[in-house]
Amino acid sequence: MLLRPPTPAQVAAFLARSREQAPSYAETGWSLNGRAPAWALAGRCRVRVGQGEVCWTRARAALRDGRMFQGWVLRPQEDVPVPLAEQGGTVVLLVRHLGPLGHGRWGLYSLIANRVLYLVDEPARYGFGYGTLPGHLVRGEERFLLERDAAGTVWLELTTFSRAALPFSRFAQPFVGAAQRRGARHYARMLVQATGC
Fold it and tell me: Any idea where the DUF1990 domain is (predicted)?
């Protein structure tokens, strides 16, 4: 945990360490088909993004660029892209647990890392799934999937499975499901907002 947002040097060092780590659980890629291991809490959130080809194009770009990472889960450096369209890429995010946003502001922050496990790039489906790396408060996966139905409606479906990972976070297991739901709704709201459909 950090009392201030991390410096660029701290983020770079964390990313370098995280690139060397394997996911923190064995069942990697299970979220691709909506599966979850017996040890995990599973969640699903599906929201309408908009309608039509322009909306589909905007939603794909917003998802690829990580524009859902705003608010309390965000990119630690706005000018540094997140490798969401790169299978095997390491994604570092900054979680703001308490306190205001902004450089040099006191609060309670943590850096978390995930590995992009798979990509989906089809005519009517686009997205990715990533899994947690050691040091994350939970272990598990999230799948971000855009779908375009026959009527041209664009949907975002977030599928998750996770369980508390760190010794001090295990007491919070009853709250993991609530946090998953909150996170999914937050990501969906930020992506819909970024898409502007």
Answer: 24-189
